[in-house]
Structures are given as structure tokens and as C-alpha cells.
Batch of 3 targets.
Target 1
Amino acid sequence: MRGRYANLTRIRSLDPERDHLAIYQTMLRLEFPWDMKLGLNLAFNRSFSVPEIARVHVGTGELTERTQQRIDDTGLLMYEMVLHGFEHPRGRAALRRVNQIHRRHDIDADDHRYVLGCLVVVPTRWLDRYGWRRPCCHERRATHAFYRELGRRMGVTDLPASYAEFASWFDRYDAARLRPNDDAATIERATRALMRTRLPRLLAPLGDALVSAMYDAPLRRATRVTEPARPVRLGLHLALRGRARLLRWCGRPRRTPLFADGIRTRTYPHGYDIGRLGPRPTPTADRADPG
């Protein structure tokens, strides 16, 4: 398809460190919108499944009692930072809100690094396997640079210095800490219905099995999800690979960026106030933060 690689050509002309925001925006909004959104969902699901992190979320009740709103709030804060960057007023407001929310909880520094690692590694590996093309080296470096900068602004120190180093660190931490736990299983049951909405309507009868097939074996073990039948796993794999080939050879380059007319969610169909996203503020926890 003519022009299919125009964005990639432009990305390769940019500096992945200096221009990491522009590159990451292009990945999300033009090159891989469906895959990136799904990959980020899988990344958050994985981060919620580490016992220490899962315990915090179950304790607040946000993910189990207000599931749709909590997922929408998380997505909105993330997308505001990606769409606008950290220096734009909206990006700064989103970062400030993220820091206010996280300040409430005593979270281990490695757990913070793991959440960032999920956002760096999980979507990239999904694209490696099911994207219409694999991310190039500039895109990997830009992804790492974006989340390294987010981590810096959140006060997370000692992040791995490159994508490859972060992926290696992530795998070691994942193997050591992602283990079966009841809290992760509780969160997975609460969020599963939202994952099913990512599937085409024709596949709705197979929704639960297909969601399980999207998880890898360690995540299924951690969340106590039964392994789906091999035909389901193989069928999903072949369908996603077929979709990738179809997009590569027949897909038209996207002209209108994702979220060009704003971000719409079920919880906030008429708009939202960034400062009110997430759990309700408390006077002591949500003091002002410059972002």
C-alpha cells in the first residue's frame, strides 16, 4: 500500500532521545492505535497482578467496586500525558494527579519500576508478535525514553538505562515476584469484562476464553486463570497474525490520529476534569505537586 511506511521513514529521521514524545505519539495515534491500546491494557493488568501491588488495589476497592471508572481514569491520565507531553498544562495536570494518587500508598521503589517496565515492555512485545510491523530501534528507544522521563518526574530513580536493559530487568523481576495470589485473581475477575469489550462482537461467545488466551502462562498463574483449550489459543494466534499481514499488505495508512476529537470514555461521555480523576482527594494526601 502506497505510503504505508511514510511514518516509519519520518520516525527514522528523528532523534529517539530528543524527539521521544513525537515518536511515541506517532506509535499510539497513527501506526498502532488498536495494538497500543490493547498492549497498555495488558500492561496494567500485569502490573496489578504482583501480590504487593494487588494488595494495595484490593484494599482501596477502586478496581473491584468502581472498575469502569478506575480503568477510565487510569487511561485518561496516561493518554493526557502522551497526547500533550509533560510541559503542556494538561500533561502537567495529569502528572500532578498521578503523583497525588501514588503518594497515598507506601509502594516499594522496585514495584514502581515494575509498573513502568510493564508499560515499556508489554506493549512492545505485543507489537513484536502481532503488530503489522515490528517496532524499529528508534521506537524502542523512544518508548524507553518516554517512560524514563515519566519515572524521573514521579521520583522513581535507578531506572535501567536502555530498552534492552529494562526488558532484562523486567524479566528477572517478573519471574521472581509474579506468583499466584488471591488479590490478583480478584482484580482479574473484576476487569475481565472490560477486556472482553476489546473483542469484535462476532467473537463475544468466546470472550472469556479469548481474554485468557491473551495472557501468557505466568500471568494466568498469578491470576489463577485456567489455561484455555489449545484450539482457542492457536486460533487467536493465527487470527492476530492474519490481521497483521492484512494490515501490512492491504491496510491504508491512518490519516486521522487517534483521539483527534478528544478522548471519550463510558464514565465521562461529556468530558472530565483532570484534577478530579482517580480516587477522591484527601486533604493530607493530595497536597499540590508541581509535576
Target 2
Amino acid sequence: MVPPPDIDIHPYTQDDYLGCVAIFDSNVPEFFAPSEREGFAHFLSSLPGPFWVVRDRPAGTIVGCGGLSIADGGTTAWLRWGMVLAGRQRQGIGRRLIDARLQWLDAQPGIKSVRVATTAQVSGFFQHMGFERTTTAKDKYGPGLDRCDLERRIV
């Protein structure tokens, strides 16, 4: 069994910008189209909600990031730009980042569902976390990068 990663999850600051962009770049073209980089950079400069960074404690490097926004009059949360450094995937970091965001949402009154728009390549990860696929749009993000919308109800 792989030991849990020695990580710290903390709120994003501008000092984390280059590390987050490096994580994005490490996931092109498998999970992101190169054309999405500008949108991600803009997102980081005008965050619509909380955004967190995952730091590897021993190395001090950023290995993941992700945030969320609230919509529909405060009843729906959208997971936004969640990603893990390509070389650190499948080590439990993504799961810990999702758990941290869901824990934050638990403290917010009125949230009835959590949604995410992701690629087909990643949709299985979210399905294992209790999300159900609602729609799919072929090649939405680029050739071979279908958009899948998923939702998880909050009880």
C-alpha cells in the first residue's frame, strides 16, 4: 500500500501563480488543450471563489491546485480548475484536494449540489468520488478532449 502523501493544502496566493501554471503545463495535451492556458491564467488573476494549492511538504513544491465557485443563487458549487502535477498523479493528492474542497462546502449553508466540467479522461475519477455524469460534449476542449459534466448531490 502506498503511504499517504505528505502534503499541505492552503489558500492560493499570487506567489503560487508560477507553480500552478507549471502544473497546468505538465497536463497538456493529455488533459488540457494548449489553448486553455490563457483562460487558466486569467482565472488565477480574477478568482471567482476560493482556490487552494497543494504543497509537497518535504520538497516545498506545488503539486496540485483547485478551487470552486458558487452559482444558482448559492445552491450549486462548481469545482474549478482542479489538477495535479503529471508526475504526482495516482498518489492520493487529487482525492485529498477534492476532500478539502468538499469539506469547505460542508460549512456553507444552502449548497444542494456540486458540479464539475472535466474531460472524459478524468470523469471516472469523479465518478469514484460519488459524482454522476450528466452531459457529454464531443471535442469541446479540443480534438479528443470531450467535456463531461458531472454532479454530486449534497444531502
Target 3
Amino acid sequence: MLSQVIKLGRSSGLKSAVLMTIGNVGSTGVAAIAMIIFSRVLGPEQFGIFSVLFSTMLILSRIGDMGINIAISRAIAQNHGKPNLVRSYSQNGAYLKAIIMSVVVVFGLISSSYLTSTLLNLSSNYTPLVRLVIVLSTSVVIYEYINSLLQARQHFGLSVATNTIQSLLKLALALVSLVVTVNLQVITLSYMLFPLLGATVGLTVISLRELLPRYNPKITKSIINVARWTSLSILAGALAENIDVLIVQNYLTTHETGLYAAATRIATVASLIGWSLGTVLNMRVAQYKDKKNLDQYLKKGSMLATAALILTLAIILITTPLVNLTIGTSYLAVVPTLNILLISTALLTATTPFVALFYVFDYPRYFAISGFLTALTLIAADLILIPVFGLVGAGWARVITRTVVIIYTLTTAYSEYQKHYGKK
């Protein structure tokens, strides 16, 4: 047993997984803290505008992905040791992204006035800033592409570095904004460009030649064949993460959008408990193939998830002083909504040990279906509840969404468990 533990500890795969986990969770935490500081500095109204622009950028960057990153990473991993073929895949991926983002930018600029006033419900004064977001969303697409190329080549340390650098730059600007006035335009521009600065680290091992768009019909077709199935789930995930901010903006005031966006940032920090637990469990459950060990995992994993759930819910007891100390007294009105969002986060944490099972069952369909289910349920619940109940309705929409996903997760996990380990 001890020898197996030592062997596992020496595993390069495990070390890489731990490195990626610590780096990405840490970077997410740093970025969330930076966002919380900006919410305090800008105030609800301006932070609401920033959050709308930021959500728009994230959705556009996912359109620029369209599953290409996953397809390229898979192709590079399968053709390791064939540098010419690897370079060709990288270049053809860049070719597809260039086409997609060209369409996005051209269409976005043409419709920017409509996008600003109607879809984003902002004053026409912000049209130039919306156009800037549309154009510079390409920098985020480039950053994510370079990051995926680094991971495909197993340069996990550099991948973590790119993420960490851009998060630290955001935090540095946030700290500066506490002592020097930094306006909305500067913050928005910085959030578009910092990822690109972080990505420059990757250029130490990835040549610019690999990023030059090239077209090879056979390779391009193979990329599209893989990407077309993952693109929809990626877009669904982007909508699930960002659409509620845009719906709040359309039905309520920009001030209320700022309140809600700030509350979601605090909930994001709390969700790091679940993310950390999930990563540990994913690595743990990957070792188990027999029913006895899997049953033990489920028992211990459920206990850990319950503890994490209780810990997350316990934060509700201190939300008022927490809001005072973090985003400030101007956000106190959002405390009831924050409490509901924390319930949603706790429910997400509760699903963690069961989600990990789908890696053992080799059931990737779960992640696509749960992504679609999340997006569709959240949009429907938001459209029904926000006009009637306001911000509290937005919070309950997330709780309803998490509940639906939990039901799907548990029923599917039970079905797959019975299929693999039930009575024959």
C-alpha cells in the first residue's frame, strides 16, 4: 500500500494535475478578489456597466473558441513527436479562429449601436466602449488558444504562469485603484489586454510561426469534426455563467446589476471550496475501478461534500459584515440575494463527489447535457422570476437551476453505477 502511495506521488501526471489545480484555483481566487475591490471602488452603478461589458466579452471569447481549443489539444496529444503535423494543426486552428473572430468583430461593429442600446440596455454614450470590447475580445481568444497549446504540449507550469500573471496584473490594478482614481474605461481596457500580456509567457516555447493561420482542407475538416460537438456545450456554459447579469440589466436598473454582479463575485470565492474539493476527488476517484473501492469513495466523498456544504452555508451567518468589509456599505441591499446565491453555491458543492464518477464511467455526455440543462433552466427561470421578484428572483433562479442539475446528476450517476456495478 505504501509503495503504491509513493509511486502515485512520483507520478508526473498527478504532479501536473496538482500544479494545474493549485495554480488555476489560486488564480481564480486572485481574480475574484480583484473584481471585489473594483466593485467597491466603482460603486454599484459603474460596476454594473463594467459587469455587463465583462460578461459580453466572455460570451464573445467563447464564440471565438467554438470547441477548437479542445480539438487542437486532442490532435496535438495524439501526434506527439510529429512536429510538422503539430505545427500544421496549430496553424489550422488559428485559421479557423481568425475566420470566426473576423465575422464576430465585423458583425459586432456593424450592430454595435443596437447591441449597446437594446441587448445590453446601456446609454448610447457607451457604444465606443462596447466596440472596444468587441474588437479586444480577440485578445482573450488568443490568450486561451496559447494556453491550450501549452497544456497540449504538457507545459503545465507555463500554462499556470500565463493565468497567474494576468490575474496578478488585475489585482495590482485593483490595489492601485484604492489610492489613485482609475476610471471605468481604463479598467475595461486593462481586462481586455492583461490576458494577452500573460500569454506572452507562452511564446517562450511556442513560435509565432505556429500561430500564423494556414489552411489545409484535410486537417481543418478533422478539427471541425471534433469541435462541432463540443462547441455547443462550451457556448451553453458561457451563457450559464454570464447570461443572468445581462438579463438583470435588461429587466432592472444598472445599479441593481452592479449589486447582483458584486454578490456573484463573493459567491465565486465561496465556490472555491467546491472547486478544490472537486479536483481532489477527481484525482482520487480516477484510481478506483472496482465496486468496493468506489463504494468507499462515495461514502467518504459524500461526507466531505456535506462538510463543504455546511461550511459554505455557514458564510450566510456573516454576510452583512462580509459585505461591509469587502464590497462596501453601498452594497448592503444585496445581502438577501447573496444569501440565496450562497445556497446555490452550496448545492453546487453537494454534487461534487457524484460529478467525479463520470470520469470513472467514461461518460462525457454528462458534461454536455448538464451544460445545456444549466443554460436552458437558468435562462427560463431568470425570465420568469426576475421581472416579478427582482434580484431575489435572480438568486432563486440559480438555486432552481442547481437543483435541476443535482437531480439529473444523481439519477444519471445511479443509472451508470447500476450499469457498471449492479447485479448482472
